[in-house]
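[09:14] KT: can someone run the structure on this one? pasting the chain below
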Amino acid sequence: MSYLIVILIIGFIITIHELGHLIASKIAGIPVAVFSIGFGPKIIGMKINKTEYRVSLVPLGGYVLPEMQDENIFFSIPPSKRIIFSAGGIAANIMLSFMIYAAINLSLGLYGFSGAIMASAGRLTDVIFRTLAALAGVFTSPENLSGLVGLVKIGGDHLGTGVLSMAGFAALISINLAVFNLLPLPVLDGGKILMYLIEKITPKAKKLHLPLSAAGWIVILLMTIYATAHDIAKII
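[09:31] RB: done, structure tokens below
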């Protein structure tokens, strides 16, 4: 049961990431056809101002589908607006972690309100830098890489130690998702932002999006397979 709760928490964190993209799309003026909580077949949904908001069968994350007939229309949107759209998910995860740390500090009563906010900002900054260092270390020590199986196992252990410990785990996973998405792989938000910045220098870079994204998906798939196999081996 605890592992199911962890999966739902991870799904919630990914949904917040996609909600950040949705909010950013509204700010940038990019039309959205579908915002889904979960994947797979639609369970329920409603349409508001040309955007369909739906709940889908598999409750692990979600997605934002821009209202575009083809990729050429999407790439006709100014790069600055696409950068805002891509950065929205990262910003949402960082904000979620900050709010969780603030709630933990306030519940412990160790600080006043302003002190809790300052301590939360400091904690957030520290964890972001530690996560960046750990992510860089993965490339030299790939055995430290964990996938979904490993995260669920760790989360299940945290769940048994109390609500605050589990909240801290959720904040850490949210930061990890934000930092991971900063990697310069075109399939990730950081890679997309980098490509959009290059476009501002040379518009011909648009032609590289599709082949680089395909290569990025291959890298992510291989990393996922390796991490999952390694997680299962550690559990066994």
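[09:33] KT: thanks! Residues 79-108 form the longest helix (30 residues).
[09:34] RB: yep, looked fine to me
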